[in-house]
Design a protein that fits this description.
homodimer, alpha+beta, Arc Repressor Mutant, subunit A, two-stranded antiparallel ribbon, 6 strands, 39% helix, 15% strand
Chain lengths: 150, 150
């Protein structure tokens, strides 16, 4: 995708986040890394992505501090890609995409993967926005407070 | 962005969601629509996007049932783009991107816009994954249960 405007200096965190991860492949790589994929070949096999495109995405994610390169966990010569703390925090973005997809894009009864609680195996609850005092906030109960123009 | 694999039939809701909204511009359009932007010219002015690119994105978002075309709210001849119920549910995806961006991509003290509770003006709480029984779940306390291959 050609970026016509750089958003890396934006005052909107949504825009700045998309500048870093706003690419279909990048988020799928992060999704797979959250599930424990670590090797170039494993990302490639899982995603069906061309090697060059995968290499570029991985390099960018390392440069942006979302993945880091680690020695192979089995002592072999292959290096591995592991999420940093900053990268792991994207699990909420991936979960929000998942829950929206589940609710909006599947026919009733159509099979899909499900995010479950690791200890009990039960489906994770739907994310909800909460006010500072704990009230659940619907989409029209929030507003964006913009930074004053300097 | 060239999509080398269509994800529209994927069994993973993250992939299917990205097939529909996994584009930098689409999510920025949705962000602005959530803030009340409705007119072609207003989207264009806010985003600094080329007219043709904006027209394509708006058409796709209407086709995918995320936006719908409505008569102008002021009675003029211009049509407006309004989020559907399915589109409004993306507020959680936009909020998750925002909160990750705030935490990961700004220097201490650097200004950015903030999502606040409309009635009290206080910053919205950080999203958190919860188990069915209410426990907060960290990134490594969940797993994906895949659909059995047919």
């Amino acid at each position: 995708m050609v970026k016509r405007v750089s958003l890396s200096q934006a005052a909107c965190p949504v825009a700045r986040a998309l500048d870093v991860i706003g690419d279909w492949w990048s988020l799928l790589i992060i999704r797979d890394a959250l599930e424990g994929v670590r090797r170039f070949g494993a990302f490639q096999a899982g995603l069906g992505i061309a090697k060059g495109m995968l290499a570029t995405r991985l390099r960018d994610l390392v440069e942006d501090g979302i993945l880091e390169i680690a020695p192979a966990s089995d002592g072999s010569a292959y290096s591995e890609y592991v999420l940093t703390a900053k990268g792991r925090e994207l699990h909420l973005v991936v979960a929000a995409l998942r829950q929206w997809g589940e609710a909006a894009l599947y026919a009733p009864g159509e099979d899909h993967s499900v995010l479950v609680d690791r200890t009990r195996g039960q489906k994770v609850a739907r994310l909800a926005l909460q006010a500072a005092d704990g009230r659940t906030l619907q989409w029209n109960e929030t507003r964006v407070r913009h930074v004053a123009a300097v």
